[in-house]
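ugh ok fine here u go
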Amino acid sequence: MNTSPTILSTKKLSVAQKELLSNADIKYVEYEAIEIELLETQIEKDIQNAIFTSKNAFKAIKNIRTNISKCFCVGENTKKLLEENGLNIVETAQNAFDLAQIIIKKYKNESFLFFCGNLRRNELPDLLNQNKIDLKEQVVYKTHLKLDKFDRSFDGILFFSPSGIQSYVSENTIEPSIAFCIGNTTAAEARKYAATTVVASKPSVEDVIVQAIEYFRNK
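structure:
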C-alpha cells in the first residue's frame, strides 16, 4: 500500500504487540469489544475430567479449592495457564470441534464437566451429546458486549472471538475492511459480514497481528 494502513483491534494490545504493528508501519486503534464478568460459583470438590475452552473459565474457578484429575483444553494460552497452576493437561486442541473429536475417539466412556461462559459455542457439547458422552456444563463467566460506534472505516480489523464480532457489528459494518481472525470459529462468524477473512495459523493474538502485517506488506 502507498499509505500506511490503519487497523482496528477489538482487544486492547500489550506494549510488545503494539510494537509489532508500529515496526511494520501500521497504524492502529484499539478498544475492548467485550467485557468478561467472572461469576461466583460452587463446584464439585473432586472432578475427574474438566474441559476448558478459554482462559476465562479457569480464571473463574482458580481460587476455589477443588481437585481436578485431568484437563482437556483449547488453545496454547489456555494450556499454559493451566500448567502454570499445576494442573494435569491430557489433551489440547486448536478449537472446540477438534477437542470434541479427540474425546469421542479416545474417551468415549468417561464423564466430563465443561466450564464455560454464557455465550459458549455449540460445537463441543452438541458433538459429545450426539455421541452419548456424559457431559455436564457449568457457566462460570458472562460475556458482555460493549457497543461502540466508529465513524470511519479501517483497512483491517483484528477479531479474537465470535462475540467480539457480534459486538462490533451491532453498531458498525465490517465491509470494506479485511477481517483478521484468531481461529476458524471466529472466521466463520466474520464471513457472515466480511468479503475477505484471513485466519491465523496459530490461535494467538501475536499471530493475528503477524497475518495483518504480512497481508499489508504484500499490497
